[in-house]
Design a protein that fits this description.
This protein has about 525 residues and is mainly α. Helix content is about 75%, strand content about 0%. Helix 4 crosses helix 22.
Length: about 525
């Protein structure tokens, strides 16, 4: 509701935050299977990034052998896709405001399908890099659109659960990439890496077919004046008719449509920026204090997600295990599969905790575990470097801490970066604001993955992980002091958390972002927030 409105606000429409008595009498709604299916289909786009990262960890070993590449060429081969992602991420925000969220997903899938074929049939390093460029465009689009679409289609009660599917499928893609490495590693060197990369076209085919069953985002439909279509989608993706009505009212108010308007199609004034015009000015040149805080929160979260070294571990885990003392190729790839299994298992655990425990507790716990794992890994690798003989205990500790690092990442920082970034922007800024976060994420990842081998040669692999551990400590302090809790809020209410009063209060010992945050959370839960 607009500031100053006398009407009460609530994250769930069936009862207001003050109507706790009636709320407690209502049973928790069943999980909305239609919204669940939409989230799964949209999040399948993130398999593309995960598969590329996982498969390149092994494929690059054989590409190097086949073409006699240097470490610098391998770094550029692995990391350049993240730089190319910047083009896709920046373009995706405007594209999704122009043609819609659904067809942007189609474009991402088609682009990666073409890229997988180009990489699989590459005849030289330059040809392969062209395929990497096309893949980067597709991945940039996919990473931006999946969490935005899912957040906009999800009911409040399970938005965290559904939006975390982006990271779930990234992890699933990583695991598929590791398995692909193991499956094809026994083939001739000039063939195995081609199959590893070419198989990446398969998820794109399933995505293209699945997207035909998806509805368009209700928020995008309202932005286009298609209220009748938006009502149909909201009725199917909400926990109750009352919630659907309140979600529609909030979206109409945000877009600038009269609340009493019941027409199926209305004309949206050009001044409402329905296709994204003027958004960059509002985001970067003349942001309000609350928008500025949203931008800092999004960019800081995405920066620290990658600066703590997760992509270096995913891409270079065989190199890390080689430094630890494992030299057999099959054993190396088996160890990476174990890492992928840990990563995938713990992201599944996280999805069932986000809407129950909130974003902040999981995020701070996750980063704390990452700090301990990174510092322990760095210490064990340093001891191995300084030792003149093989230390089995140090090798075991290195493998264990790599697994604990990816597990800690997956249980909090991994999914929450996408969940939080996709839900805190106002509707008119969401697509392009989220694309800024994706661009930051991929840009930092590109720098890390394109310099990790050189960094390891300069300050040792252990020294590199001490550096990542220090960055993780800074990230914990940033999250603790700057990010308010968003659990239980509708997307239209998020801006309130970053207004002066609410933001300062939420960071003054209040985990839920308002004076009666705990009480409001209880009323929401009593009204039917899904208990996972």
């Amino acid at each position: 509701m607009k500031e100053g409105s006398s009407e009460p606000k609530s994250a769930i429409p069936a009862a207001t935050a003050t109507d706790t008595t009636s709320a407690e009498k209502k049973p928790a709604p069943k999980r909305n299977m239609y919204a669940l299916a939409c989230a799964i289909l949209a999040s399948m786009t993130s398999i593309l990034l995960g598969y590329d990262g996982g498969v390149m960890s092994g494929a690059s070993i054989y590409i190097k052998k086949d073409w006699n590449l240097s470490d610098v060429q391998v770094e550029f081969l692995n990391g350049s896709i993240n730089i190319y992602c910047l083009f896709g991420a920046f373009a995706a925000g405007r594209t999704s405001d122009w043609i819609g969220r659904r067809y942007t997903i189609v474009f991402a899938g088609v682009t990666f399908f073409v890229a997988a074929l180009l990489m699989g049939f590459a005849t030289n390093y330059v040809f392969l890099m062209i395929g990497r460029f096309v893949a980067g465009i597709g991945v940039g689009y996919a990473l931006m659109i999946a969490p935005v679409y899912t957040a906009e289609v999800s009911p409040v009660s399970c938005r965290g659960f559904l939006t975390s599917f982006t990271e779930v499928f990234i992890n699933f893609g990583v695991l598929l990439g590791y398995v692909s490495n193991l499956a094809f590693c026994k083939l001739p060197v000039n063939l195995n890496w081609r199959l590893m990369l070419g198989v990446g076209a398969v998820p794109s085919v399933f995505l293209a077919v699945g997207v035909l069953a998806m509805p368009e985002s209700p928020r995008w439909l309202v932005m286009q004046g298609r209220l009748g279509d938006a009502k149909k989608v909201l009725n199917r993706t909400s926990d109750s008719p009352e919630e659907a009505e309140l979600r529609l009212r909030d979206i109409k108010e945000t877009v600038g449509i009269a609340l009493e308007c019941d027409d199926d199609v209305v004309e949206i004034p050009k001044s409402n920026n329905k296709n994204g015009e003027g958004v960059w000015k509002e985001l970067l040149l003349k942001p309000t204090p609350s928008v500025r805080r949203v931008m800092i929160a999004c960019i800081g979260l995405q920066f620290f997600q990658q600066a703590s070294g997760i992509d270096a571990v995913v891409l270079y885990s065989p190199r890390i295990f080689t430094k630890a003392g494992i030299t057999n190729d099959t054993h190396l790839l088996l160890a990476t599969v174990a890492v992928g299994c840990f990563k995938t298992f713990f992201i599944l655990v996280a999805t069932f905790m986000l809407d129950k425990h909130g974003r902040r507790p999981l995020l701070l716990t996750s980063v704390g575990g990452m700090i301990i794992s990174l510092l322990t890994l760095a210490t064990s690798l340093t001891i191995i470097d300084l030792s003149s003989h093989k230390l089995n205990w140090a090798i075991a500790l290195s493998i264990t801490t790599v697994c604990s690092f990816v597990a800690s990442f997956s249980i909090g920082l991994g999914p929450i970066a996408w969940v939080y970034s996709s839900e805190i922007f106002p509707l008119r800024l969401r697509a392009q604001g989220t694309s800024m976060g994706v661009a930051t994420n991929r840009g930092v990842s590109g720098v890390i993955t394109m310099t990790f081998l050189s960094l390891s040669n300069a300050i040792t692999t252990g020294g590199g992980f001490f550096l990542f551990g220090g960055i993780a400590i800074l990230s914990w302090l940033f999250f603790f002091t700057f990010l308010p809790e968003t659990q239980g809020r509708t997307l239209e209410e998020m801006h309130e958390l970053f207004d002066d009063f609410k933001w300062k209060e939420s960071l003054h010992g209040k985990m839920y972002g308002n004076k009666n945050g705990k009480e409001e959370e209880n009323s929401i839960n009593g009204n039917g927030q899904i208990q996972l």
